[in-house]
Amino acid sequence: MANAHSAPRGQGVPGAPRAAAPGPADAGRDAPRAPRDPSPGTEAPATGQDAPRETARDRHHATPWPAARRIAAQAGRQAAAHRARTTEPPVDPVTGAQTDPATGLSLDPVADASTAPRAERFPRGAARVPLEAALGLVLAAPLTALTDLPSFDTSAMDGWVVAGPGPWAVRDEGILAGHEPPAPLSDGEAAAIATGARIPPETTAVIRSEHGRLDDKRNLHPLREVAHGQDIRPRAQECRSGELLLPAGSVVTPAVLGLAAAAGYDDLLVVPRARVEVLVLGDELLTSGRPRDGLIRDALGPMLPHWLRALGVEVIAVRRLGDDAGAVLKAVRDSTADLVVTTGGTASGPVDHVHPTLRALGAELLVDGVKVRPGHPMLLARLAEGRHLVGLPGNPLAAVSGLLTLAEPLLSELSGRAAPESSYGREAREPDTAPLHAAVQGHPHDTRLVPVVLRQDRDSGHDWAVPLHYNGPAMLRGIAAADALAVIPPGGAQGAQEVGILDLPWSWSTGNPGTDLPGNEGCFT
Ligand SMILES: Nc1nc2c(c(=O)[nH]1)N[C@H]1C(S)=C(S)[C@@H](COP(=O)(O)OP(=O)(O)OC[C@H]3O[C@@H](n4cnc5c(N)ncnc54)[C@H](O)[C@@H]3O)O[C@H]1N2
Ligand code: MOO
């Protein structure tokens, strides 16, 4: 299938046709039926008895969706600043000093706060971790070369090193990579050499094995013209010692790990992983077997830890607490996590223990309900300086909505991954957008998050967001087939209208066929 990320989504898409939008190449993933909804532009927003009920609590407390994300990001920045003030900077294992060996600058976050450039470099605290533990983290300091690369003149090919014009008398001893330094060549001399081996002094060129011929007296004759310096990788061809390789704020990918190792690093200064604890509430939840006797399977315990890890955090525990008010209070009070994520119990039912727990602990509610469907009872609270709780509603897609609305922006700031307003110097990036393949029914007052597949238009190369049918709060069938969630503004969106796209942290890697179907009707219950 077309990879969702292969198209320049969000760039140039506005040029795509708006009225009679061409369908994506394979919209519907072999859907057995056509989309049920009317053609683009004819959809009316939900009204009357179809409109979801808005409770008194919603109207009083609920935060608009974009503002909720901003508040969550702000909470993440404050938590990061708190961590920077309170974390011991890492100690240089060689010198014992709290300095960055690459730059020689102090890593003391308090000292850093007094000088703007350094404060900017370490606003989130920094940890020194071995290379093998750094994948997915964000560099807290620039990656500067600890050596010239290559660190010596090296042969780019298997063949011979030669000095002066040929033919050349070939030495008995060849030169291998990783061996003793070779003796200088004299004019008219050659030596067999392996790729990556050190070039002897006075060498003028490397001749590839396929471009030279040895006669029976072990004299080497060139089979083509020899250019001075050919196939020699000169020392520092890629970088000089001290040269900037990657700025602070870069995400450590497998390629970055390779570069860091090549440049001489054993460990890296990174923004530490946020520590997250997941508390699953609900007496009705089974952890194995088929649903029975009014009990259902816990869908969030198996889902959330991995989703959170995909956001770059450390999940320190997943605990199932039932609907025991005392256990919830104790678990939240005693948690040492940067972020506690609860599931269920956010509404106002008899066993909804999240609000009473927060009241009992004197927590500050930063967001108490969001004008978004699904997921409107989601909440964000500050438990203490630098420590937060995100309450996800129990309905599984509502929980996903809360994860992406509140937890993701907070964690992205805390882990240094956030692009806009990041102090790590990354360029602010426009949020992704894509045109909708069909009109989508809106909620009259709230934003909707709707699972979509992203399909590439063959002609333009742009992605189209194809809304999926199974988008109800209690359903996971849509999101399991989806590449992303589309952000549908209050009132709905027309076919071909550009809407915001929230990527799923793994969507680049799946291509799941799924069994959901295109469908743009709203399912609010
Ligand atoms: N009177 C009102 N009732 C409800 C409202 C409302 O505004 N007024 N909002 C509804 C909405 S919308 C949602 S979403 C839920 C949120 O409820 P809670 O966060 O309190 O969650 P629970 O009541 O515990 O569970 C809701 C639903 O989800 C199922 N669930 C819970 N945990 C899991 C899990 N780990 N895996 C799978 N399914 C889970 C649970 O059995 C319930 O069916 O409140 C509505 N009510
Ligand atoms: O927030 Mo609820 O998810 O609309 O069911």
Automatic annotation (TrEMBL):
Pfam families: MoCF_biosynth, MoeA_C, MoeA_N. Keywords: Magnesium, Metal-binding, Molybdenum, Molybdenum cofactor biosynthesis, Transferase. Pathway: Cofactor biosynthesis; molybdopterin biosynthesis. The lineage of its organism: Bacteria, Bacillati, Actinomycetota, Actinomycetes, Kitasatosporales. Residues 27-36 have a biased composition (Basic and acidic residues). It comes from Streptomyces xanthii. Residues 1-121 are annotated as: Disordered. Its cofactor is Mg(2+). Residues 277-413 form the MoaB/Mog domain. This is Molybdopterin molybdenumtransferase. One of its GO terms (molecular function) is molybdopterin molybdotransferase activity. Catalyzes the insertion of molybdate into adenylated molybdopterin with the concomitant release of AMP. Residues 7-26, 67-81 have a biased composition (Low complexity). InterPro entries: MoaB/Mog-like_dom_sf, MoaB/Mog_dom, MoeA-like, MoeA_C_domain_IV, MoeA_C_domain_IV_sf, MoeA_linker/N, MoeA_linker/N_sf.
